[in-house]
Amino acid sequence: MTPGRISVAVLVVLTLVFIFENTRDTRIRLLIPEVTMPLWTALLGMGVIGALCGAYFVRRRG
């Protein structure tokens, strides 16, 4: 087990705990439409969008 694999395993466990702790539905409004979805799904979606934006700016810079 390398330190990289251990840190990935810890991140996977923390991600699973986060998902199981945030399963209740929440209402989200995006301009006009209002949708109901699990909180972890909304947070995951925003995280992916943020990661894509960050990757775009890093790639464009370098």
Automatic annotation (TrEMBL):
Highest taxon of source: Bacteria
Transmembrane domains' residue ranges: 39-58
Keywords, sorted A to Z: Membrane, Transmembrane, Transmembrane helix
Protein name as catalogued: DUF1049 domain-containing protein
